[in-house]
């Protein structure tokens, strides 16, 4: 299976480096992507918006003869859902890694601090403790060294969705910061951030207890979880 790996904020294709071999060993063809504006710290990202990220992945999806699996971490979840909306017949499954689908009109995060027209990786004290579980000092240093500022409009643009067939695309949620049972409880309580997920017709859950960046803290287990989701 061709698996497109979509990184979350501040990360490029190389952030999946320790996950890719696990997927290859399972017989899959992983395709990690670097989204527009995340090529380097020197890239011009001033005019790049959420739709540019979605369109970049749509173009990649269109290069495959058969439907693909999308794997999306964190803020990449909005990108994956936009792609499923644009190509519902070309996406076999979306796997959300500590993420989920946004609804039409929602933004990924319009509260992140903007510095000099872009969004750099915040200081660690600005994250919740749950985000940082298992992210030791060495991993934090490596993450910060590779981090690229996020385009402002990717975080703040409202997601535009048009095709209800996106709800027919099967979904797997890999729950990291809190267990999937908690997410199910949020859905049952009609929490706003789960309403789009609640409309998806087929949803499976895999628990992978760790912090918000399992591709760094538990890459082997993450690769195995993605392979299990694809099966």
Automatic annotation (TrEMBL):
Gene3D superfamilies: alpha/beta hydrolase (3.40.50.1820). One of its GO terms (molecular function) is catalytic activity. InterPro entries: AB_hydrolase_1, AB_hydrolase_fold, Sec-Metab_Biosynth_Hydrolase. It comes from the Bacteria. Residues 3-221 form the AB hydrolase-1 domain. This is Pimeloyl-ACP methyl ester carboxylesterase. It comes from Agromyces terreus.
């Amino acid at each position: 299976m061709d698996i497109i790996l979509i990184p979350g904020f501040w990360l490029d294709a190389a952030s999946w480096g320790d996950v890719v071999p696990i997927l290859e060993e399972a017989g899959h063809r992983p395709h990690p992507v670097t989204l527009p504006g995340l090529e380097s710290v020197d890239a011009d990202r001033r005019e790049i918006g959420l739709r540019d990220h979605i369109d970049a992945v749509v173009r990649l999806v269109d290069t495959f003869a058969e439907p693909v699996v999308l794997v999306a971490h964190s803020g990449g979840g909005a990108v994956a859902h936009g792609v499923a909306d644009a190509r519902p017949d070309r996406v076999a499954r979306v796997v959300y890694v500590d993420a989920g689908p946004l609804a039409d009109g929602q933004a990924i995060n319009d509260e992140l601090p903007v510095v000099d027209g872009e969004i750099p990786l915040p200081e660690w004290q600005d994250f919740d403790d749950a985000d940082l579980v298992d992210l030791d000092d060495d991993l934090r240093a490596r993450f910060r060294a590779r981090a690229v500022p996020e385009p402002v409009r990717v975080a703040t643009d409202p997601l535009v969705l048009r095709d209800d067939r996106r709800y027919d695309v099967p979904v797997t949620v890999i729950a990291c910061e809190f267990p999937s049972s908690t997410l199910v409880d949020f859905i049952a309580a009609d929490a706003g951030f789960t309403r789009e997920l609640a409309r998806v017709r087929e949803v499976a859950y895999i628990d992978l207890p760790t912090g918000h960046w399992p591709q760094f803290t538990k890459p082997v287990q993450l690769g195995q979880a993605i392979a299990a989701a694809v099966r």
